[in-house]
Design brief:
The structure is a single chain. This protein is 44% helix and 11% strand. It is an alpha/beta fold. The longest helix has 18 residues.
Amino acid sequence: MKKIVLCLPKRVKMELRRWRRWTKDKGLALRIQIVLHAAKGRESRTIAEALGCHRSWVSRVVQRFREEGRAGVLDRREDNGQAKLNEEYLGQLHDVVSRGPPDYGHRRPTWTRELLVEVMTDLTGIRIHVGTMSRALKAIGARRGRPRPVVRCPWSQAARNKRIRALRQRLANLPPGEVAVYQDEVDIHLNPKIGLDWMNRGQQKEVVTPGQNQKRYLAGAMNARTGELTVVEGTRKNSALFIDLLKALRADYPTARRIHVILDNFRIHSSQISQMALAAFGGRIVLHFLPPYCPNENKIERLWQDLHSEVTRNHRCSTMDDLMQNVWHFIQGKARRHRTRTISVAA
């Protein structure tokens, strides 16, 4: 292998070193370093191995410097023409990703980079490489995630919005001496829910399942203003569990003239037994039902999501008692964070 012969005056070498020291462009610094190595008479293979680049690129950088001097080490990508990933292209890509392939005449239900390239070519007339599409997706903040399954509310949009608006107005104009809580139930399974986790390359973690599943149920209520929690536990998700929660609410708010409970349309909330219990409370507890399938309007749903993320998903408990101990430790931690006065517990 022949050495690269590049004779540089000492003054030029000093200028190149100063330029390399002060530039913030890593590519430019690397090209200057190639020229300085070549000026020492080193082989292209040695330079490439030392700097982690290809031998042919070393030769091209040195040749351009011979022909053009300092201008030869500058980045020439600005001569490639107008950038394809301009603001207009990225904006349209953002709109495309927010929808699905069927909206653009394709049968496939999920996006691939290759399919995005084809759809964007049809829409904009600009074809880019699949690798460039990766950079474009990163530029708009797109990510590969797991979709959230939802059920459409059977009500009309106007009726749904009217009910939600009325509930929000009631919360905003709550009279003194009255409290409002969000209520919901959650299932606790001994067989763990399987969720995403970080793993080393070539490794797949295992989650041991007890096999014979067991269940416990929590009914909870979260104060709409303070975040205070009232939670009861049961072995069955039935009207008795719901009534136990109502009794616990009455005990937790002894001075409240009225307790407004915002909840979903689960059948135990409107059963005859529950209605009889509400009548026995003398109208002190009032139920306000959300539109069907509107979990985002029930603020306690987020508590149950955190419970599954931090406790039940991929858990290693072999008995239900151990699992429920972790569940209550989580709830008590949330209660301290929200400065809850009391937590009611019923087995």
